[in-house]
Write a structure and sequence with these properties.
five-stranded parallel sheet, EC 6.-.-.-, CC_BshC
């Protein structure tokens, strides 16, 4: 695996909010605590030192029980130790891990724990995968793409996806020992995901947490009660959102009066003002889930995608309300993976990664324009024509003022005619370069399947099948504190 990196800004594919956050622009500094730098973890550790001993004990017990339920030993960590801290990423329970970026999130988190261990050897750092077991958006996780095929699970089950049983899970024809074992042994989707994530990353120290647990929710109960009974969070989030939008940033989430659901055996029901619920059955929505995470974990940092970083920045006020330290936010690593053949083809065609990030029409036109020996636009002719037409308009008006309109009409007709001619010349040149254009578009489709970023579409099995060390190589390649885009060649 070889690679090179590109600045986010050079690809024109990342939001201004993310770029400004990473640059630590002064206007944003009130929306988070410590910034995304290794040196800032010293202060973050101090802030999290107050994490309650009793909460550590409950967390350790819950994790040990969850691993015992799948017949596995939890990675050798003791979260009861006051010098042990977590760094966390979270994601939905995609079948077969879903798209590549789920793997990238996990690898980024593991590598952050490793970097912290080197920088702060007196503490222990544990990478945690927060399993979004209470999520109910099944359509977002019920499929994956590999080798040009969509594999999908359809079911009538509803509610928290982590509780789904596997009795109607389809037979996936892709043979893989890890997934075969997970989907044959796991009784629920939560167990399946823990089994395969433990097989893939347990040896790297990854701990998988299912927060759909009554003991853990008891730690968060006072905050959920305040949300349900006093609706304390919506005004704070709304005010923060308005401030971000006034600065010109796009926001991701909107708080409700009540930011909770009720979990039943087969449903997840939104709660409204005036409702009641047993706290063990309450489920935080996207507004309260980050706060829930930080209440039950001795956590220092959250690693997420651009949208996650954006919505966390809307939430600092509710952390301040409950005096919970706000974690350091880090974007996950981003990458595109090419085969050697694809890399050679891109080089031969003179295509940069920035070129491939443009839309198909822009890519095709810029490629043709860059290779032609002909002048394909008529801008210079239009520019030369303007003073001639202006002179004619003046002469015609001097003879008869009504003739000026005729000249202006001719001017518009000639302008449109030249523009049509330019389009015809460009299409003709595209036909002349037809073979190369088809190669460009084929490469674009291979690396951006269905018009999506590869990492948001393709499953990692496409690469690990021929490159068994794919994940190990990623662990050696990604730097979670290098905020650039990785262009990888296998």
């Amino acid at each position: 695996m070889s690679y090179k990196t590109h600045s986010f800004a050079s690809l024109n594919a990342f939001s201004k909010l993310l770029l400004d956050y990473l640059a630590e622009k002064p206007a944003l500094q009130g929306f988070y605590g410590n910034g995304p730098q290794l040196s800032k973890f010293k202060d973050q550790i101090v802030a999290k030192k107050s994490f309650p001993e009793a909460s550590r004990a409950i967390l350790q017990t819950v994790l040990e029980e969850q691993y015992a339920a799948i017949g596995a030993e939890m990675p050798s960590v003791d979260l009861r130790d006051e010098n042990t801290f977590t760094v966390t990423t979270g994601h939905q329970l995609n079948i077969y891990t879903g798209p590549l970026y789920v793997i990238y999130k996990i690898v980024s988190t593991i590598n952050l724990a490793r970097a912290l261990q080197k920088a702060y050897p007196d503490q222990q750092f544990v990478p945690v995968y927060w399993m979004a077991t209470e999520d109910h958006d099944f359509e977002e996780i019920n499929h994956f793409f590999a080798f040009g095929t969509k594999y999908e699970w359809t079911t009538s089950q509803k509610g928290a996806v982590g509780r789904f049983h596997l009795s109607d899970f389809p037979r996936i024809p892709l043979r893989n020992a890890i997934f075969d074992k997970a989907y044959s042994e796991g009784k629920t989707l939560s167990e399946v995901v823990r089994i395969y994530m433990h097989a893939l990353f347990g040896a790297e120290g990854l701990v998988c947490l299912d927060a759909d647990d009554a003991s853990l929710k008891s730690l968060f109960a006072p905050i959920m009660e305040a949300d349900l009974n006093q609706q304390v969070h919506e005004p704070i989030v709304r005010a923060t959102t308005e401030k971000l939008e006034a600065l010109g940033y796009k926001t991701q989430v909107a708080a409700r009066e009540v930011n909770l659901f009720r979990l039943t055996e087969n449903d997840r029901i939104r709660l409204e003002k005036g409702d009641s619920v047993e706290m063990a059955d309450a489920s935080p929505n996207v507004i309260l889930r980050p706060l829930y995470q930080e209440v039950i974990l001795p956590n220092l940092a959250y690693i997420g995608g651009p949208a996650e970083v954006a919505y966390w920045l809307q939430l600092k006020g509710i952390f301040d309300l409950h005096k919970v330290p706000f974690p350091i936010l880090l974007p996950r690593n981003f990458a595109i993976v090419k085969t050697q053949k694809q890399a050679e083809r891109a080089e031969k065609l003179g295509l940069s990664l920035a070129d491939l990030f443009t839309d198909e029409l822009t890519l095709r036109r810029s490629f043709v324009a860059g290779r032609t020996v002909h002048q394909l636009d008529t801008a210079s002719e239009l520019k030369a024509l303007q003073p001639i037409l202006d002179t004619l308009a003046g002469r015609a008006k001097a003879i008869d003022s009504t003739l000026e309109a005729s000249v202006l009409a001719e001017k518009a007709r000639w302008t449109k005619g030249l523009e049509r001619l330019a389009k015809k010349m460009k299409r003709a040149e595209e036909r002349n370069q037809g073979d190369e254009v088809r190669q460009v578009l084929a490469l674009k489709e291979a690396l951006f399947p269905a018009g999506e970023w590869q990492e948001r579409h393709t499953n990692f099995l496409e690469f690990v099948t021929d490159h068994p060390e794919f994940i190990s190589d990623l662990l050696q390649t990604f730097d979670p504190l290098n905020f650039e885009f990785y262009e990888i060649t296998l």
